[in-house]
Amino acid sequence: MAETTGIKVASNLPIISIAPWLNGADAPGRLSTAAALHAACLEFGFFYLDISSFVDPEEPEELAKLAREFFSLPQEEKDKIWLGHQDHARGYARLKENVTNGKADNHEAIDLYRPVEQPDKTKPLWGENQWPTLPQFREKYEVWIHKMKVLGMAVMEAMSVGLGMRPDEWDQLRTQVDDSFWVMRIIGYPPLPNDEDGFSCGAHKDYGCLTFLWADPTRNALQVFLPEPFVAVENPGHAPVEEGIERGAWISADPISGCVVCNIGEMWEIWTQGLYKSTLHRVIHRGSNYRFVSIPFFFEPNFNAVVAPLPAAKRLQQDDSQKKPAGTYSPTVYGDFLLKKVGGNFAQGKGKYD
Ligand SMILES: O=C(O)CCC(=O)C(=O)O
Ligand SMILES: [Fe+2]
To answer: Predicted ipTM?
Structure first.
């Protein structure tokens, strides 16, 4: 990003390696990762996380292959794990069944959530996950889930250092995320018909804490919104204008090998009283290929976590008049917030996570 005469020209999102942080012996490296996370969250709320030291890049490619196999099955096979057989949130969502901002999204997906102890499919979000029966599907995805949970805790701790939290303050925050009510979506995007000005996934912010998105190499699909004073170098995808969104620029966040795209959700806005931005993003896939697949993993707070402004964020805001909170941020029980959000996101029935 270059800065001239008060106009910020957005070209690329920052790339941050998690390797120094995971290498416990590299104290300066850990601090530089923490500082880079802090800067990226202040400026963009979106960045690339280089995880190539942590996972073999072939691993998510294998997951995408399995997803492709699933999405190529006949509709009646996919419908066997339709989310309506469970709590209307866990399972397979048909093409256009998912709704954002009142409009059907042009994608299909398998949605999985942290399993609960006493499942009850009549309770929102409280059913059982439904897995494809393809060989190795569940096993391989469960390994990925485990790794993303470990990564989530590592990034949270690094962010606590970046924000200037003391070790005892991190111990406190850790108790709110150590049993993450995680979500994973496995999304398949057919191309949008040329004559249709809809979205593959409409503009939204993610709800929770941290999203780690792996996506296949399709370009110009995921777009990130940067409010004024950012000006885009390129304007991706001849995007339709969206109502109700302030002025600014949409930039593409194309996949980078060895990296996941990482963005912060609304809980980080509350924890930091708006110091960190949860950023709008959307998907418009107009290419000729079936863009499959993207696999967002949402590392979220514990279901019962009470999310409230953190003292470290308040200290930063007291010290710097430019960082004063823009509004009031009330304590929020994450599970309640999630339940309210899932209500409006389905074409039929209830449930669904962003
Ligand atoms: O598929 C993508 O690139 C992004 C999906 C997304 O933003 C979401 O599911 O929250
Ligand atoms: Fe999202």
So the answer is: 0.99
pTM for the structure as a whole: 0.92
3-state secondary structure of 134: coil
Which residues have C-beta under 5 Å from ligand 2, the single-atom ion?
Answer: 206
In this prediction, residue 342 carries a pLDDT of 83
Identity of residue 257? S
Q: Cα of 305 to ligand 2 centre, how many Å?
A: 21
Count the alpha carbons within 13 Å of 279 in the hemisphere toward its beta carbon. 30
Q: Could you report the per-residue pLDDT of 197-210, keeping only the tens digit for each?
A: 789 999 999 999 99
Contacts of 342 (CB under 8 A, 6+ apart): 89, 124, 125, 350, 351, 352, 353
CA of 21 to the centre of ligand 2 (A): 25
Q: Is the CB of 206 under 6 A from ligand 1?
A: yes
Does pLDDT of 241 surpass 60?
no
Task: Assess contact for 49 and 18: CB atoms under 8 A.
Answer: yes
Count of residues for the chain?
Answer: 354
DSSP string covering 80-131: GGBGGGTTSSSEEEPTTTBEETTEE-S-EEEEEE---SS--TTSTT-S----
Asked whether 149 lines ligand 1 (CB < 6 A), one says no
Q: Which residue's alpha carbon is at the smallest distance from atom 1 of ligand 1?
A: 294
What ligand is nearest to the CA atom of residue 223? Answer: 1
Mean pLDDT estimate for the chain: 89
Is the distance from CB of 280 to CB of 225 less than 8 angstroms? yes
Domains of the chain: 2-342 (2.60.120.330)
Residue 171 alpha carbon to ligand 1 centre in Å: 31
CA distance 219 to 226: 19
What residue spans of 178-275 are helical by DSSP H?
Answer: 266-271
Q: What is the three-class DSSP state of 232?
A: strand
